[in-house]
Design brief:
Elements lengths: L1 H12 L3 H10 L7 H6 L1 H10 L10 H44 L4 H23 L17 H5 L5 H30 L8 H9 L1 H89 L2 H36 L3 H32 L1
Helix pairs in contact: 5-6, 6-8, 8-9
Length: 369
């Protein structure tokens, strides 16, 4: 029975690509692509079923209703707080402006009494409220300086002055709020600033409607912006995936093409470098010949060549002699240490013979003299 209901819900949404598009539109915050839904049809059916119970933000229908009621209650309490806060700040601004006027010029006594009474009432009421324990806690709060709210309330002005202040306050406050509202109208539409006060007052009555329209239009633009952002992210992911595939294909083509022509390219490079080396060698030889011609004459060069040939022939002969002696020395080394001792003895005897021959020659020279 449940399977039949689920199938009916999915058929109501759509089928095929249309179903995928509707599922993606129903879950804009879900990072899922159409390809994922195509590869996972059961997951797509699950999401299509969830669209009957979940909104676009992912909240269930009962939770969404509770959230809306909580938001309405919060907005109501916020409006009440803003109303009282606006009145309190308006009164504070009126007092500040009064003291500025009093500092710059002389004010009538009735105004002086009115504003002083209002300021004193605000201060006393605020202090009494601070001393009054909160209604949200059952614990007793310690008193400040041992004072109670009743003791502070005794500092209020006389009842007569308070009544006079209360009678004049609505008119003054209404005038103050009207000026601020007209300033708000001028700020909202600067072209209305030069119009008459009656026309501004008439437009002020429609200001809330205009602000609601602007707010709705702004929210609609924000929602459109979020949808466009999600769409842009999906398109970017799709674009990047396609781009990666193209890059991989290009890499494959480049590697295949390079492997095919690499041999010919290496051969051509080798021929080029061989020719370049040969050219450099010929240039070096030419430079050497030019240096020789600039340094020596033809006769000197021919003499140097003969000397070089003779020295090379003598060097060749010395190398051959050296090689022969090395061969003899290697053959003597084969005889071992016994032959080494005989060779040392032979060297010693040769040295003695040479010394005696030298002494004999010297003696002969001395006798001849």
């Amino acid at each position: 029975m449940f399977v039949g209901i689920e199938t009916t819900n999915i058929l109501v949404l759509g089928s095929g690509d249309n179903l995928h598009q509707q599922v993606l539109a129903s879950f804009p915050l879900c990072d899922v692509t159409e390809e994922d839904l195509t590869q996972n049809p059961q997951f797509c059916k699950l999401l299509a079923t969830l669209t009957q119970h979940v909104d676009r933000s992912g909240l269930t229908v009962p939770l969404k209703a509770d959230l809306e009621r909580a938001e309405q209650k919060l907005q109501s309490q916020k409006r009440q707080w803003l109303r009282s806060e606006s009145l309190h700040r308006g009164l504070q601004e009126m007092i500040q402006e009064f003291y500025v006027r009093k500092h710059n010029s002389t004010v009538p006594p009735d105004q002086n009494m009115f504003y002083e009474t209002m300021e004193r009432c605000l201060r006393v009421t605020r202090c009494a409220k601070q001393l009054d324990p909160s209604s949200t806690t059952s614990q007793d709060q310690p008193s400040v300086l041992g004072l109670t709210p009743q003791q502070v309330l005794q500092l209020l002005p006389s009842e007569k002055n308070v009544q006079r202040m209360k009678q004049a306050l609505p008119r003054q406050l209404e005038r103050r709020l009207k000026e601020k509202c007209l300033s708000l109208v001028s700020y909202y539409q600067p072209e209305w600033e030069n119009e008459s006060e009656g026309l501004k007052t008439n437009k002020l009555s429609h200001l809330s409607t205009l602000l609601d329209k602007d707010k709705k239009r702004t929210e609609l633009l924000k929602e459109t912006c979020r949808e466009n952002t999600v769409l842009l992210q999906r398109q970017t992911q799709l674009y990047l995936s396609e781009l990666i595939k193209c890059i991989q294909l290009l890499q494959t083509l480049i590697l295949d093409h390079r492997l095919k022509i690499q041999t010919d390219l290496d051969g051509k490079k080798l021929d080029y470098f061989e020719g370049k080396c040969e050219l450099v060698l010929q240039k070096i030889k030419t430079e050497m010949v030019e240096i020789q011609l600039d340094t020596y004459s033809l006769d000197t060069i021919s003499a140097h060549r003969k000397i070089r040939e003779k020295l090379e022939s003598e060097l060749t002969a010395c190398k051959a002699e050296k090689q022969a002696l090395e061969m003899k020395l290697s053959s003597f080394e084969i005889l071992g240490k016994a032959f080494e001792a005989l060779a040392d003895e032979y060297c010693r005897l040769r040295q003695e013979i040479d010394m005696k021959n030298w002494a004999l020659k010297e003696l002969t020279k001395y006798n001849e003299k």
